[in-house]
Amino acid sequence: DSIGSTEVILTWTQVDTSPEVINGFFRGYRIQFGKTDEWPMNIREQDKIFNDPLQYPRPRVKRDLPGFVEVKVNHLPPYSDITLQVRVLNKYYAGPPSDTIQFRTMEGQPGPPAMMDVVVRGSTHFELAWEPPYEPNGRLIGYNISYQTITGLNLGRLQYRQPVEDPSDTRARLTGLMPDTYYRVFLSAATRRGKGEPIFLDM
């Protein structure tokens, strides 16, 4: 349960934080991570700070640090192979990196479809075409289409079309519409983790 779609919980043994080993004042750790296929060109960082050297005057009592460190790393890309390493921080520098570890994040909700267009406009139907999301964040299981009327500045009740259950389909027909009426149509992709962010088109 320590790996989610956008976060991971890491645990490791606390290093020897004595000034002789750290070459100075121990501050904490820097976690560096990125997609494995973009490593090490594209790296993000998250710091875990235990001691702030700006505290003045220094506390007389030395703080006892836990024997184990637990850190939640956030903002990971879903459904991706991740490479990660840790560095020790003193007051001025980050130490040499640890050995890297690799893991895979879980599926997440997909990003919005890349585009949507109307390829056929009938009096009571539309033929829609779209492109899959740039960030599927998992295995797509289909698409959801909803729509509502536009009357001046007012939007009608949201209605739902039967879902598109084949994720390779990128066209669908919307039928049963009223003639001479403006509509707002929403399209979202879905993975097993749920529906993603929709895009919409007024037509």
Q: What portion of the residues fall into strands of 2 or more residues?
A: over 45%
The rounded Rg comes to 25 Å
The outline comes out as elongated
H/E element string?
EHEEEEEEEEEEEEEE
Low-confidence stretches: none
User: Structural class of the secondary elements?
Assistant: mainly beta
Quote the distance from N terminus to C terminus. 45 Å
Provide mean pLDDT, rounded. 92
> Number of DSSP strands?
15
Kindly state the percentage of residues in helix.
under 10%
Count of runs of 4 or more consecutive helical residues: 1
Specify the biggest β-sheet: 6 strands, antiparallel
Description:
This protein is mainly β and 203 residues long. It is elongated. 2% of the residues lie in helices and 46% in strands. It is built from one helix and 15 strands.
Blueprint of the fold:
Blueprint (H helix, E strand, L loop, with lengths): L7 E6 L5 H4 L3 E10 L8 E6 L18 E6 L7 E10 L10 E4 L8 E9 L4 E8 L8 E10 L2 E2 L3 E2 L10 E4 L7 E10 L2 E2 L3 E4 L1
Antiparallel strand pairs: 1-4, 2-3, 2-5, 5-6, 7-8, 8-12, 9-10, 9-11, 9-13, 13-14, 13-15
Provide a quick synopsis of the model.
This protein has one helix and 15 strands; from the N terminus they run E-H-E-E-E-E-E-E-E-E-E-E-E-E-E-E.
Structural key phrases:
2% helix, mainly beta, six-stranded antiparallel β-sheet
